[in-house]
């Protein structure tokens, strides 16, 4: 059994194509939950992001949606075995998802490969390529399912993030918060965590380096993620 133990929950990942990653952990710790009551996790995978935000604010009403038949098994098991079994899990595509109440935060670690060569693993292709969920479809889902004061929080490779932000701005959304991430001090920015809003605000820009010069977790990364890692 493949699993990843955190301080307050465990992720079993026997079926999902995309396993627990540094991207997911730092994003789940970074996303702002201020003023949030209802969260939707699009493309939940193993359920990592849903469980992280629930740990941070247990009173949140969290819903998770996942299209993949195998990943849904991991997410369901992980939710049931966690302290927060009230997370609602939906097995369907977000393009046809409807909910009676609007969400004030939508989070996603979405597919990001566009027009690139695919491998032989269909499940992994679905998780990594935008065929099943394009950037425009994700933006449309946010506009349709969110409240007027809601935010959309995303993590993407840096170049893909610029494309996503440009498309979102064309749909009337505003970039209000971003964090540039590099793996080590000597490497360029490789990831962007960012939040979009329906209303303009002064942009808050941050930066995060995962490892220091000694190849140990940096002070900033440790401060961000220490509530989750079992040995940190």
From TrEMBL:
Pfam families: MTS. It is an enzyme of class 2 (transferase). GO terms for biological process: methylation. It catalyses: adenosine(37) in tRNA1(Val) + S-adenosyl-L-methionine = N(6)-methyladenosine(37) in tRNA1(Val) + S-adenosyl-L-homocysteine + H(+). GO terms for molecular function: methyltransferase activity. SUPFAM superfamilies: S-adenosyl-L-methionine-dependent methyltransferases (SSF53335). Residues 36-117 form the Methyltransferase small domain. Keywords: Cytoplasm, Methyltransferase, S-adenosyl-L-methionine, Transferase, tRNA processing. It is found in: Cytoplasm. Its main location: cytoplasm. Its EC number is 2.1.1.223. Specifically methylates the adenine in position 37 of tRNA(1)(Val) (anticodon cmo5UAC). Belongs to the methyltransferase superfamily. tRNA (adenine-N(6)-)-methyltransferase family. This is tRNA1(Val) (adenine(37)-N6)-methyltransferase. It comes from Pseudoalteromonas obscura. The lineage of its organism: Bacteria, Pseudomonadati, Pseudomonadota, Gammaproteobacteria, Alteromonadales.
């Amino acid at each position: 059994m493949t699993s990843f133990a955190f301080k307050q929950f465990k992720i079993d990942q026997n079926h999902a194509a995309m396993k627990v990653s540094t991207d997911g952990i730092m994003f789940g710790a970074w996303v702002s939950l201020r003023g949030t009551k209802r969260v939707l996790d699009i493309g939940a995978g193993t359920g990592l992001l849903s469980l992280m935000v629930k740990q941070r604010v247990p009173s949140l009403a969290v819903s998770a949606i996942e299209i993949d038949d195998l990943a849904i098994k991991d997410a369901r098991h992980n939710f049931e075995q966690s302290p927060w079994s009230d997370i609602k899990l939906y097995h369907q595509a977000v393009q046809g998802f409807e909910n009676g109440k609007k969400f004030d935060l939508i989070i996603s670690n979405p597919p990001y490969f566009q027009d690139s060569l695919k491998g032989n693993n269909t499940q992994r292709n679905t998780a990594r390529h935008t065929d099943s969920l394009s950037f425009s479809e994700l933006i449309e889902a946010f506009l349709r399912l969110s409240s007027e004061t809601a935010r959309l929080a995303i993590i993407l490779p840096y170049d893909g993030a610029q494309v996503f932000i440009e498309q979102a701005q064309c749909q009337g959304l505003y970039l209000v918060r971003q964090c540039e991430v590099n793996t080590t001090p000597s490497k360029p920015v490789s990831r962007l965590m960012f939040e979009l809003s329906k209303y303009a605000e002064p942009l808050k820009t941050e930066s995060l380096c995962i490892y220091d010069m000694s190849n140990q977790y940096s002070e900033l990364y440790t401060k961000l993620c220490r509530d989750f890692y079992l040995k940190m």
